[in-house]
Design brief:
This protein has helices spanning about 1-30, 40, 45-65, 70-75, 75-95, 105-135. With about 140 residues, the chain is mainly alpha-helical.
Length: about 140
Protein backbone atom coordinates (compact mmCIF):
# COMPACT_ATOMS: atom_id res chain seq x y z
CA UNK A 1 0.00 0.00 0.00
CA UNK A 2 2.86 2.36 0.86
CA UNK A 3 4.40 1.85 -2.60
CA UNK A 4 1.09 2.78 -4.21
CA UNK A 5 0.95 6.10 -2.38
CA UNK A 6 4.55 6.92 -3.32
CA UNK A 7 3.81 6.07 -6.94
CA UNK A 8 0.70 8.27 -6.97
CA UNK A 9 2.62 11.13 -5.36
CA UNK A 10 5.35 10.82 -7.97
CA UNK A 11 2.85 10.83 -10.83
CA UNK A 12 0.93 13.81 -9.41
CA UNK A 13 3.76 16.03 -8.18
CA UNK A 14 6.97 15.15 -9.99
CA UNK A 15 6.20 13.42 -13.30
CA UNK A 16 4.56 16.42 -15.05
CA UNK A 17 7.63 18.67 -15.05
CA UNK A 18 9.93 15.79 -15.95
CA UNK A 19 7.70 14.85 -18.89
CA UNK A 20 7.55 18.47 -20.01
CA UNK A 21 11.37 18.58 -20.09
CA UNK A 22 11.32 15.65 -22.51
CA UNK A 23 8.60 17.25 -24.67
CA UNK A 24 10.52 20.55 -24.84
CA UNK A 25 13.69 18.70 -25.84
CA UNK A 26 11.88 16.76 -28.57
CA UNK A 27 10.21 19.89 -29.97
CA UNK A 28 13.52 21.77 -29.85
CA UNK A 29 15.10 18.97 -31.87
CA UNK A 30 12.74 19.51 -34.80
CA UNK A 31 13.92 21.77 -37.60
CA UNK A 32 12.01 25.06 -37.87
CA UNK A 33 10.55 24.04 -41.25
CA UNK A 34 9.07 20.81 -39.83
CA UNK A 35 7.27 22.32 -36.84
CA UNK A 36 3.45 22.22 -36.70
CA UNK A 37 1.68 25.04 -38.59
CA UNK A 38 0.21 26.72 -35.50
CA UNK A 39 3.75 27.54 -34.30
CA UNK A 40 4.19 29.81 -37.31
CA UNK A 41 0.97 31.71 -36.53
CA UNK A 42 1.89 32.55 -32.92
CA UNK A 43 4.96 34.49 -31.82
CA UNK A 44 7.64 32.10 -30.65
CA UNK A 45 8.17 34.38 -27.63
CA UNK A 46 4.56 33.75 -26.56
CA UNK A 47 5.03 29.99 -26.99
CA UNK A 48 8.24 30.10 -24.95
CA UNK A 49 6.50 32.20 -22.27
CA UNK A 50 3.57 29.77 -22.00
CA UNK A 51 5.53 26.51 -22.14
CA UNK A 52 8.21 27.59 -19.68
CA UNK A 53 5.56 29.17 -17.47
CA UNK A 54 3.88 25.77 -17.36
CA UNK A 55 7.25 24.19 -16.57
CA UNK A 56 7.81 26.68 -13.72
CA UNK A 57 4.33 25.94 -12.36
CA UNK A 58 4.88 22.17 -12.46
CA UNK A 59 8.28 22.58 -10.81
CA UNK A 60 7.11 24.71 -7.89
CA UNK A 61 4.15 22.38 -7.40
CA UNK A 62 6.61 19.50 -7.22
CA UNK A 63 9.18 21.25 -5.04
CA UNK A 64 6.56 22.46 -2.53
CA UNK A 65 5.62 18.79 -2.10
CA UNK A 66 9.16 17.45 -1.86
CA UNK A 67 10.31 15.24 1.00
CA UNK A 68 13.24 17.62 1.51
CA UNK A 69 12.54 20.55 3.84
CA UNK A 70 15.26 22.62 2.12
CA UNK A 71 13.68 22.14 -1.30
CA UNK A 72 10.24 22.98 0.12
CA UNK A 73 11.53 26.11 1.84
CA UNK A 74 13.22 27.48 -1.28
CA UNK A 75 10.82 25.96 -3.84
CA UNK A 76 10.16 29.25 -5.66
CA UNK A 77 13.84 30.01 -6.10
CA UNK A 78 14.65 26.47 -7.21
CA UNK A 79 11.75 26.43 -9.68
CA UNK A 80 12.82 29.72 -11.27
CA UNK A 81 16.51 28.78 -11.37
CA UNK A 82 15.90 25.33 -12.86
CA UNK A 83 13.35 26.57 -15.39
CA UNK A 84 15.57 29.45 -16.49
CA UNK A 85 18.57 27.12 -16.57
CA UNK A 86 16.71 24.66 -18.75
CA UNK A 87 15.82 27.58 -21.01
CA UNK A 88 19.54 28.23 -21.46
CA UNK A 89 20.20 24.56 -22.16
CA UNK A 90 17.30 24.55 -24.65
CA UNK A 91 18.67 27.56 -26.51
CA UNK A 92 22.18 26.10 -26.66
CA UNK A 93 20.75 22.79 -27.88
CA UNK A 94 18.99 24.61 -30.73
CA UNK A 95 22.36 25.74 -32.12
CA UNK A 96 22.90 22.12 -33.15
CA UNK A 97 19.52 21.76 -34.88
CA UNK A 98 19.36 22.71 -38.58
CA UNK A 99 17.12 25.73 -39.14
CA UNK A 100 17.12 26.68 -35.44
CA UNK A 101 19.17 29.24 -33.55
CA UNK A 102 20.01 30.40 -30.06
CA UNK A 103 18.04 33.47 -28.98
CA UNK A 104 18.44 35.69 -25.93
CA UNK A 105 14.84 36.84 -26.45
CA UNK A 106 13.55 33.26 -26.24
CA UNK A 107 15.46 32.70 -23.00
CA UNK A 108 14.09 35.93 -21.55
CA UNK A 109 10.57 34.79 -22.48
CA UNK A 110 11.29 31.41 -20.82
CA UNK A 111 12.42 33.09 -17.62
CA UNK A 112 9.57 35.63 -17.61
CA UNK A 113 7.03 32.82 -18.03
CA UNK A 114 8.56 30.94 -15.10
CA UNK A 115 8.62 34.07 -12.94
CA UNK A 116 4.97 34.82 -13.59
CA UNK A 117 3.83 31.22 -13.09
CA UNK A 118 5.73 30.82 -9.82
CA UNK A 119 4.46 34.16 -8.55
CA UNK A 120 0.85 33.29 -9.41
CA UNK A 121 1.25 29.88 -7.79
CA UNK A 122 2.45 31.49 -4.55
CA UNK A 123 -0.24 34.18 -4.59
CA UNK A 124 -3.07 31.69 -5.12
CA UNK A 125 -1.61 29.22 -2.61
CA UNK A 126 -1.32 31.94 0.04
CA UNK A 127 -4.85 33.16 -0.76
CA UNK A 128 -6.21 29.63 -0.49
CA UNK A 129 -4.37 28.95 2.78
CA UNK A 130 -5.48 32.27 4.26
CA UNK A 131 -9.12 31.58 3.44
CA UNK A 132 -8.88 27.99 4.66
CA UNK A 133 -7.73 29.26 8.08
CA UNK A 134 -10.53 31.88 8.11
CA UNK A 135 -13.17 29.28 7.16
CA UNK A 136 -11.99 26.88 9.87
CA UNK A 137 -12.08 29.62 12.52
CA UNK A 138 -15.69 30.52 11.69
Amino acid sequence: MKFGKKYKNYLYYHFPWQMLLVIIFILSSISQQNLPDFTREVSDKILHFIVFGLLGFFMIHSFKNSYSQVIQKYAAGWAIIFTSGYGIVDELHQILVPGRSCSLGDWLADTAGALLAVTLFLVFRNYKNKHRVTDQAA
